[in-house]
Specification:
Blueprint: E1 2-9, E2 18-25, E3 32-42, H1 44-50, E4 68-76, E5 88-92, E6 101-105, E7 109-111, H2 118-121, H3 125-138, E8 146-149, H4 155-167, E9 170-175, H5 181-187, E10 191-194, H6 201-207, E11 212-217, H7 224-230, E12 231-239, H8 252-258, E13 261-264, H9 272-285, H10 289-292, E14 299-304, H11 308-316, E15 323-327
Amino acid sequence: MRKARAIRIREPGGPEVLEIGEIELSEPGPSQVLVEVAAAGLNRADCLQRRGFYPAPPGVPPDVPGLEFAGVVESVGDSVSEWKSGDRVMGIVGGGAMATRVVTEGAELMPIPEELSLEEAAAVPEVFLTAYDAIVLQGGLHEGQTVLVHAVASGVGTAAIQIASVLGATSVGTSRTAHKLPRCTELGLTHAVLVEEGQFADTVLAAVPKGADVILDTVGAAYLSQNVKAIAKKGRIIVIGLLGGVKGELALGALLAKRASIHGSVLRSRSAVEKADLTKSFTDEMLGRFATGELKPIIDGVLPMTDIQAAHQRMDANETFGKLVLTW
């Protein structure tokens, strides 16, 4: 067993329940890799887990948050051939990334492009894999189509803007905060939409009269009726978040008339095989675009891990544009 420092959730509650403690890690199994973590990205899911609303999946430390990390390989299992000690890597995990060490499957790791620092790399895996999986693999977005992205100034939102640009797709993004939208336009957002009193569909349709072929929804119930109004014929609504509620009324007639579909998706609890397949697809299709500058992590701030409470406070207050990264 190895020891590691880690952020611990003492009990469900506000940012004050977060503290630095110590955990024990087992040695990596045959297909696993032990990584010395340099930095970890903060995600909305970490805040929900802290509050007791998003428990870690089985086999993951229940009180150590963190879904993504960047670091250096410390040791590898007997059957791992693609990684060696000293390699710079980044990846997603079901939890436990906010520790000085993490054990993960070798197939779920990605090499860090030379152009990215470890701090920059920590802002890549969760949001770019989530956006790519939702709008490309599930939504089928391709050149000439339109994607509508909610909470477009978030980490997932800013990743989705860039992926849409790479594909040659039109992007429409919504936000409830007006001052964040110009920054999204600078990233390549085609049409910026300010949500007022929960309404956005008419403004979206004014910009793209045929509607959105794909909608990336991080809000849930509160936006359901407006999503159905804004979706194009044969469009696909991909729901990945429920911050706006878990239950809503659905106008089935409108959905049927448009022959549209609604898909629910979560990345955290997927099997190791599914995560490995997603990682490989992203590595093959998108990872090289960080070297060319077509894709880049959008970081609001880099803080020491000792400032974890302040980082959670900022995310709870919706003050961020892009990602917050915590470093050891």
